[in-house]
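Notes continue from the previous slide.

Worked example: a multi-chain complex. Inputs as given:
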Amino acid sequence: MPTPPKPLLQRQTVTAMVAEYIAAKIIGGDYPGGHQIRQEAIAAELGVSRIPVREALLQLEAEGLVVIRTHRGAVVSDLSADDAIDLFDARLLLEPFLVKKAIARLSNQDIANVERALRDYEAAIARGDPKELSRLNWAFHTALLEPSMRPRSMAVLQTLYSSADRYLRLQIEPLKAQTKALQEHRDIFEAYRLRDAVETSRLLKKHVADAAEEIVSQLKRGEAAG
Amino acid sequence: MPTPPKPLLQRQTVTAMVAEYIAAKIIGGDYPGGHQIRQEAIAAELGVSRIPVREALLQLEAEGLVVIRTHRGAVVSDLSADDAIDLFDARLLLEPFLVKKAIARLSNQDIANVERALRDYEAAIARGDPKELSRLNWAFHTALLEPSMRPRSMAVLQTLYSSADRYLRLQIEPLKAQTKALQEHRDIFEAYRLRDAVETSRLLKKHVADAAEEIVSQLKRGEAAG
DNA sequence: GGATGAAATATTGGATACGATCCTGCGACA
DNA sequence: TGTCGCAGGATCGTATCCAATATTTCATCC
């Protein structure tokens, strides 16, 4: 029985792989804000041509991770405190709204999904891998909002989140902040499970606002130190 | 005195020109929802290669105008009534919020800009070109929100708007709706000029909500008709 | 006659090659 | 000494060409 010549992973396009690769570097902090991304360097590093690299960069620009200027290439976008306020204010409007819509049409399956996301997050704290923790944190938020059936708004939130994600990592690292976030996640889930839209919305808003305040003050300290 | 060899327009890249070209076709209704966009056809039409066409399509996907599926090309994205509700709910959260922020830091120059946008819109009604009208309508909204200094949120709004824009055109065409929109714009501007944040926000919200209702009901009729 | 499957065709994805633009460093001139 | 202009190299933007995938066509079988 001849196996298929290539593994299933090959199903995705090179562009997508490159985009993932660069995004991971940025989110992981390997490419800090302001870092110049050379198309040829990435291409050589991955053994591909520059075309998929360019197209990956275009996608990342749409997600707000890089900024492209004509004939000057792509630089990793840097977040000012004002940018962070901008991004989080938008999240603070959208997330509470969507969670109410989600609760309005919540199935038991949805609740189970959120519970699983919560447990995954819990387990990751024990292991302590910050990148994984960041990913699972967002997975929890996504699970909360998914039942709202608002793909466009979810896409917007995705970009808002990924623009601030790598800065959130700084906040999420200290163990104290982690356990605080976990407790908040538990509280949110409890209200969510009971389908209490108002309370869930309130808790979620506070949860996001706390994170925002933490990041903004951190960025302001950084800018003052400059 | 030797003039520069090429006109100033050449300053932008081919990709940008192609993106503009396709976007205009979509917004203008020449490419209806669901229409397959062949890279080679566009390339031949404009006398360029397929590479800038592909990159233009990637940008348009980020703006929500087309959907790209691997090895199947790009199709003009079609809006369901649910999508429209999704998009407009997000706008209804963001625009009133941003206009309040804008008023909080309003300069006389900003007010003059809005007034000019309002007059341009007024003048376009007289001429009656629907594409131009659509563009100037959004220019007015943008001018209102610009002083908020929230570039990230503005970028989000831009994509939300351009996804629904061409359906708005249907609503904006009847003369009655046009004059209604104009009167609303005038009312909004009056409150804005007086720096009345609450009233401006209220009027703007209603203005957007009215447009949303019109479009959604129109889409629903279309879906029922199949 | 309709469904199934394989070859032919069309279309997209990616690699290589070339021209255009921008940045850097050196020298000329005020 | 400081500023300007001008090579030279580095990097990006686009065209051409090849490979991979999807769609269509057409013969075959039930």
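Summary box: Residues 13-15, 48-52, 55, 70-73 of chain B lie near DNA strand D (CB under 10 Å from a C1'). Residues 1-10 of chain B have pLDDT under 50 and may be disordered.
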